[in-house]
């Protein structure tokens, strides 16, 4: 099976309007920025996007929000995007806010073939509305269902031509669990190497989970919030 694609535009071929996408990253750290930019250049719309957050106004998933390509966001944090806030409050965008740990576990469960699990997170809040509640060790837990997607799009530091991936530092975040949960997983990498060049002891995502891989043309790696001290 040839997993190598020349660029982001070729790798996203087959994504259609109305599909559900998972996109790795946390804030702007470890996001598949080449793939998102390629999606923004298409007329694909009515997407359901599962991501920790929705980028910022002019970068990351913020690009797809600006062009009205997203119908629904499933996320845990949305505080850095003014356009997201405007669309949510106006009713233009459907939003499902999930506790961050629950979001990660719902993605992991989807990749592991576990249909649902019980968690105490969210009990007593709007998150629990309409969900089954059971008591374990004297503590109420709510039933959360697994999440999967038509396509999962992740970003890695290094990958080989078999699809094995290594993430770097905190850019690992949601990428490994989402890579497992897509029917088709696209990986964009900073460096694409030959099979055998990656130490298998350091591979985070085995190639069995990855169907498409390409080397990104460039990575801006924008800093979401720059905090510095004044020089004395």
TrEMBL record:
Keywords assigned by UniProt, alphabetized: Transferase
Domain of life: Bacteria
Any GO MF annotation of the entry: CoA-transferase activity
Official protein name in the record: 3-oxoacid CoA-transferase subunit A
């Amino acid at each position: 099976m040839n997993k190598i694609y020349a660029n982001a535009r070729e790798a996203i071929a087959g994504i259609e309007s109305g599909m559900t996408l998972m996109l790795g990253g946390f804030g702007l750290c470890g996001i598949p920025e080449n793939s998102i930019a390629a999606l923004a250049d298409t007329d694909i719309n009515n997407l359901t996007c599962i991501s920790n957050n929705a980028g910022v106004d002019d970068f990351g998933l913020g690009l797809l929000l600006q062009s009205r390509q997203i119908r629904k966001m499933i996320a845990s944090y949305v505080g850095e995007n003014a356009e997201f806030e405007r669309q949510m409050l106006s009713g233009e965008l459907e939003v499902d806010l999930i506790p961050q740990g629950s979001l990660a576990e719902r993605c992991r469960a989807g990749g592991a073939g576990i249909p649902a699990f019980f968690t105490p997170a969210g009990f007593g809040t709007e998150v629990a509305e309409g969900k089954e509640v059971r008591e374990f060790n004297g503590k109420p837990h709510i039933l959360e269902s697994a999440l999967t997607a038509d396509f999962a799009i992740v970003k890695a530091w290094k990958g080989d031509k078999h699809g094995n991936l290594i993430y770097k530092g905190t850019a690992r975040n949601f990428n490994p669990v989402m890579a497992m949960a897509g029917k088709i997983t696209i990986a964009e990498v900073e460096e694409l190497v030959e099979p055998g060049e990656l130490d298998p002891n350091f591979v985070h995502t085995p190639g069995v989970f990855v169907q498409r891989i390409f080397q990104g043309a460039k990575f801006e790696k924008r800093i979401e919030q720059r905090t510095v001290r004044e020089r004395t």
